[in-house]
Q: What sequence folds into this?
């Protein structure tokens, strides 16, 4: 019994030594997403912590597009933080904003263009899964922009992107991150539900 317990503790210590930073990033990211579904302003600084952690994790895993994505996330996070704060200051709460159809088409087209451009660059840098990683990066930026602008469509896009990310991270043996992104899918569904309810309530004035 003692030897079994010792072996278990040794395995846990070994895992934490190898993946402790990844696990910390996963926990803070999950918390940030849940706070986002609740439209709470504190989601942005929590998300910022997870971004810096994953910047290191992805670089060491050779996922250079994902590492570069975190740099863009920093910019978008500060913008989203400021944009939501301004909304709270003016309206007393974070209000859902409609996404005009032309803006939807433009964002999706830019996502395609970014996928090819970033994929070509990542391939030259000998990154792992260059075009898949670049596509996910490109559309993650679109989803983050929509989230910062308070568009419900961000959750639809996150559901798709997160589901694909699960397979990629399993392939790269980032199991904590794969499980995190698997958890992101129902969280995105929850966010979609709650944001739609908030938008409907705003329309009816209730």
A:
């Amino acid at each position: 019994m003692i030897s079994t317990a010792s072996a278990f503790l040794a395995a846990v210590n070994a895992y934490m030594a190898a993946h402790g930073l990844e696990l910390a990033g996963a926990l803070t990211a999950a918390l940030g997403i849940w706070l986002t579904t609740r439209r709470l302003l504190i989601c942005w600084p929590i998300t910022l912590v997870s971004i810096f952690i994953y910047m290191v994790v992805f670089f060491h895993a050779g996922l250079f597009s994902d590492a570069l994505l975190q740099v863009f996330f920093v910019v978008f996070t500060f913008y989203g933080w400021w944009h939501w704060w301004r909304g709270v200051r003016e309206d007393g709460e974070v209000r859902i904003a409609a996404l005009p159809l032309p803006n939807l088409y433009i964002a999706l087209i830019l996502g395609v263009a970014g996928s090819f451009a970033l994929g070509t660059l990542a391939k030259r840098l000998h990154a792992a899964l260059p075009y898949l990683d670049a596509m996910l990066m490109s559309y993650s930026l679109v989803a983050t922009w929509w989230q910062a602008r308070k568009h419900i469509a961000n959750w639809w896009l996150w559901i798709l992107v997160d589901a694909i990310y699960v397979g990629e991270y399993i392939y790269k043996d980032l199991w904590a991150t794969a499980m995190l992104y698997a958890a992101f899918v129902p969280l995105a569904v929850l966010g979609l539900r709650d944001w739609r309810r908030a938008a409907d309530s705003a329309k009816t004035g209730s």
